[in-house]
Every structure is written in structure tokens, then in C-alpha cells.
Amino acid sequence: MGVSLADLAQSLSVPLSLVYSVKSRGSPSQKKSLSNQIIGIHLLIGQVQNLVEECGDPVGFDAARWLGDWAFSANDALGGLRPADYFDTVVGQGVVEDLLAAIRYGNYQ
Fold first, then answer.
1. Distance between CA atoms of 25 and 13, rounded to whole angstroms?
2. What is the phi-psi region of residue 65: left when phi exceeds 0, alpha when psi lies from -120 to 50, beta otherwise?
3. Is the whole-model pTM more than 0.85?
4. For the chain, first and last CA: distance in Å?
5. CB atoms < 10 A from the CB of 97, how many?
């Protein structure tokens, strides 16, 4: 995504040390929670890729990089918060998904 692991950990509301340790020492519930959050971000990347394939020119487009740039910048539609601030829950990721859909359909403000 072109963002630091520290920024990603912060957006997921998990300590950076947990991200490093989950693989080797994390509890099953920690691993499942973090895995679900990461899967959600992967789905958002896929949504961006689909948007560009359907509505734009996907040649040379890097959906993960675009999402990283966009999600870690303040967004007026979110009251100045960053979309990444919503990555830590399924509901929050749904807010980001809806915002991306609004962009796709031209309902973005």
C-alpha cells in the first residue's frame, strides 16, 4: 500500500509490537482479529481495482498504492478524518466501502 507498518498498525488500532508478534506468539483470537482486518483491507483494494477496471484505465494502475495514498489523507466526506481511521472495525471498513462506492457512482462530495 505504500504506507509504513506503523501507520497501518495504528489504523487497525493494534500496537505495532502485536503486528510483529502475532505471527509467532499471538493468541488465536488476536490472529483471527488481525487477519479479518487485513482481509477487509484486501477487499477494499479489490474494490478500488474493480472501480478502475470498470470506469477508468487500469493499465499501470496500482490499486493498493492508490488506496494507501487516499486512505491515509484527510477526507472532507468523513469530517476531516482519514478513511484509514475506519480500518479497525468491520463497520468502519463498511463506511470506507460505501465512500468508495459513492466515488464510483459520482455521489462523492
1. 19
2. alpha
3. no
4. 24
5. 16
- Check if the beta carbon of residue 71 is closer than 8 Å to that of residue 96: yes
For residues 41 and 36, give the distance between their C-alpha atoms in angstroms, rounded to a whole number: 9
Given a contact cutoff of 8 angstroms between Cβ atoms, the answer to whether 96 and 87 are in contact is: yes
Residue 24 amino acid letter: S
Instruction: Report, in this order, helix, strand and coil percent for the chain, each rounded to 5.
Output: 70, 0, 30
Grid coordinates representing 5 are 507498518
pLDDT digits (tens, 9 = 90+) for 58-104: 899 999 999 999 999 999 999 999 999 998 888 999 999 999 999 88
Q: Is residue 91 helix, strand or coil?
A: helix
Distance CA 6, CA 15 (A): 8
Q: How far apart are CA 53 and CA 57, in angstroms?
A: 6
Report how far residue 18's alpha carbon sits from residue 76's, in angstroms, rounded to the nearest whole number: 31
| SS3 letters across 17-66 | HHHHHHHHHCCHHHHHHHHHHHHHHHHHHHHHHHHHHHHCCCCCCCHHHH
